[in-house]
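Record 1 of the preview.
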Amino acid sequence: MRVTQEQGARPIRAWTDDIEPAAMEQAKQIARLPFIAPNGVALMPDVPAGIRSTVGTVIATDRAIVPAAVGVDIGCGMNAVRTSLKATDLPDSLKTLRD
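->
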């Protein structure tokens, strides 16, 4: 594993040494976002550049959800929807919701 970290950014952990320049630039931009968690960004061995975000990437966030980081490139239809629900409105287990 190779770790890259620029000043003012979270670390990028890559499980490959073969990263196209466009993919690395996208990863660096992601690592500079203000809501990226301290453990940062992980690039899988088959990481290519995508639409605004690399494909095959794990992006750890702090108090943020980025559905497009999953859905834009693979077209799976991820969507973010604002609701009136608060965390306290939810049950202790979300198993029935996931099922």
